[in-house]
Design a protein that fits this description.
The structure is a homodimer. By secondary structure, the first copy, chain A, is α+β, with helices and mostly antiparallel strands. Chain A has 2 domains: 5-251, Creatine Kinase, Chain A, domain 2 (2-Layer Sandwich); 262-349, no CATH class. Chain A has 12 helices and 10 strands. An 8-stranded antiparallel beta sheet of chain A has the order 2-3-4-5-1-8-10-9. In chain A, strands 6-7 form a two-stranded antiparallel ribbon. Chain A is globular and about 65 Å long. Chain A starts with a helix and ends with a helix. The model of chain A has no long low-confidence stretch (mean pLDDT 93). At the A-B interface, helix 8 and helix 12 of A face helix 8 and helix 12 of B.
């Protein structure tokens, strides 16, 4: 293991490269598999010794998994809150990693394509992150890691139900697929509510930028499956992929409607966002997400000159609080972060 | 008389040329003399015939006043509301000119340096407008017109009280001197209230961009004397000039305080204003005044690159609703005006 947190915080995450399908609207795809070790109490009820044993077991097994060569390993308890937050901001693990509820560990592959969180809600959470709409690739990558680990660990598996998990919503495949999709026009036309309601009825759910329990920021929705039982992994993944394609099509229609019925208001909104994001001397995180959303919309609709999508995607992460803190070196006040965030945008987007 | 309203609406008013003293903070100086004809009822109680006679008398007399050679004359009743508003927006007459309360007439000299409104509250309102802090020059210019008219008209004058006027606050010299001064830092530091209270105690008053009863917009205050009795014209004018110099000094102190204690917030405010005003596709009048104020402050504090002050001053007038309407030709909706206003700013301020 040789991936350092300091260098990680400066890297460009490959899932932000915008080189997948539907990258104009879909930032990334994610597949996460929940696994538990048989005959070991689940993290919420296990003691410190049992949790440390699980962490040891996974460490030994993962050593022989090729994807994790030259990767990184971090034990939450040994990190300060900024470092933990870096890992959460990079979407490598869930916000649970910030808490001291258990002896949490995180394995990350060298290129951040796969990661394994240990002692979260389940013993293992195997995750694969890919750029654009590419759930099948993400699924295959997560399954590869799953198979490799399966050969060294004994997972809690029931012939009738499938994989057993801490929360019943994960029982079965243990698979949660999710897609981070940008839907600014559906928000502007206020159609988004009815689409989200329809999603729910079809067994999907939309959440915020950092998953369950987090707010939607910058019109970025994390759409995922709600049920993991009664379908194969590929059925779940294809189902979600279809739903997202429909959403992206509807977003395209909404963009056309806006461009037709409210062209000047749309141009005004986009140009103001671009103007502020490239001139402001202080930008807070919430405002930044909204401005970046409008700029992305403006690039898509050719109101603004072309800008590289990877740059826009990467700014989403590089301007998060812990990333700014890390890049700045040393503790920063909220105001200092806002100043640095604004500088980063001027450096990145001004010609 | 040869000044046409259509060409007037496109002209650069000389009082916006920023070539007077204190032009960084003081837009313009204005002196207005109230005069009434002896033995003729005042406009508020006179009938149509009497008002028309006053207008005729003034027209005959003004024909021999050199300052008005090649000037313009407009009778309010013969103008539509856009045309009347043009004259008000250019500060050539008061907002009273919009109303049909009497048979109002307006004489304007060729270069808009002096004007005479007939049948407003008083029979005559003689006004001189100059750039920067130059009340004495404005006063001399107004007095010159006053003397010329005095030789052809008999003004209502009382040995004890001086000139008699419709409103007792104008009795005496009939002189109202006012200065349009930009005080953004005093507004930001919230010191403005206490300074305005002090002004009042000293017999001065601060009003909005278009005088009595209008709102302060863009941190532009019209400071004027309240009393016209018991002092000579020059005493009033010098008193106001001193007060304004003090205000400008205090504004300078407030700017230093801001630059020292809230530099980054100030820079952020200025740069955002500049960004929006040079990129927006729609700008309403109120927002425009505020943005322009921040840009002017930013130029003064060298946060922004130098910009010609006359351009900033002229935009104050050229982007007022009736001026935009006139320049656009034909009736415009509020949205169309906002679009045209934003275009004007992009054309004028973008390098």
């Amino acid at each position: 293991m040789s991936l350092e947190l300091n260098s990680l915080a400066r890297k460009k995450a490959p899932w932000l490269s915008a080189d997948g399908e539907y990258s104009h609207a879909v930032i990334s795809s994610r597949v996460r598999l929940a696994r538990n070790l048989a005959r070991v109490p689940y993290p919420s009820i296990s003691n410190a010794k049992q949790q440390a044993e699980v962490l040891d077991l996974v460490t030994q097994t993962i050593a022989s998994v090729k994807s994790f060569d030259n990767g990184g390993f971090w034990r939450a308890r040994e990190l300060d809150s900024t470092d933990r937050q870096i890992l959460v901001e990079r979407h490598l693990t869930s916000p649970e990693f910030m808490r001291d509820s258990a002896d949490l560990g995180l394995f990350v592959s060298a290129e951040e394509k796969v990661s394994v969180t240990v002692n979260e809600e389940d013993h293992l959470r195997i995750q694969a992150l890919t750029a654009g709409l590419s759930l099948q690739a993400a699924c295959e990558r997560a399954q590869e890691v799953d198979s490799s680990l399966d050969s060294g660990l004994t997972f809690d598996f029931d012939r009738e139900f499938g994989y057993l998990t801490a929360c019943p919503t994960n029982v079965g495949t243990g698979l949660r697929a999710s897609v981070l999709v940008h839907l600014p026009a559906l928000v502007l036309t206020r159609e988004i509510e009815s689409y989200l309601n329809r999603l729910n009825k079809l067994g999907f759910v939309a959440r915020g930028f950092y998953g369950e329990g987090t707010d939607v920021q910058g019109n970025l929705f994390q759409v995922s499956n709600q049920t993991t039982l009664g379908q194969t992994e590929m059925e779940i993944v294809r189902g979600l992929e279809n739903i997202v394609k429909q959403l992206v099509d509807q977003e395209g229609e909404a963009e056309k409607t806006l461009a037709k019925n409210a062209r000047i208001e749309l141009e005004d909104r986009v140009w103001r966002a671009y103007a502020i994001i490239t001139h402001a001397r202080m930008l807070n995180s919430g405002e930044m997400m909204n401005l970046l959303s409008a700029v992305r919309l403006g690039v898509g609709l050719k109101i603004l000159s072309p800008m590289p999508l990877p740059t826009l995607n990467e700014l989403l992460i590089l301007t998060q609080p812990a990333h700014l803190q890390k890049a700045g070196g040393g503790k920063q006040s909220g105001e200092e972060r806002d100043v640095r965030r604004a500088e980063l945008f001027r450096e990145s987007l001004n010609a």
